[in-house]
Amino acid sequence: MSKPNILVTGTPGAGKTHFAKQISEYYGMKFLEISKIVQDNNFFDGYDEDLHCPILDEDKLLDYLEPLMNEGNNVAEYHSSEFFPERWFNQVYVVRCNTDKLFKRLEERGYNSKKIQNNVEYEIFQMALDEAKNSYKKEIVHEVRGETEEQLEANLKHVGEFLNNFDE
Description:
single chain, alpha/beta, 5-stranded parallel β-sheet, two-stranded antiparallel sheet, 49% helix
């Protein structure tokens, strides 16, 4: 892989999709919205009635992504990071968000109260950050904020510095 791959992860509603799309647009990288890929290709292994969401078939997803990731120049966005192979990513950004703002965003999406509570707790206990830190080398994992346009601009600048200094 001569061009880098970036993973953007974090709690649903934290701002990771917006950040990943901006990286893609600013730096000409291919945007991989993992949830959409899963949906479009029916990579499911059942349904979680309690959380009202499908259960991911990780093997099917990883098999599909392997050739894309080997090409490089991807920015992948997903709320989880632990099952992706470490070799795929040169940089990992964990988008964090104030829980009051996160709560409002999830409410606006129409999430039920249990799903909102689970996601807010996921953020409070920094589970996405810990998952990324446990799955990748600490020097490639970066915690960023996803609340304001100023934070987005600072985050994009950080990505630009990484890309300018990347050499395989």
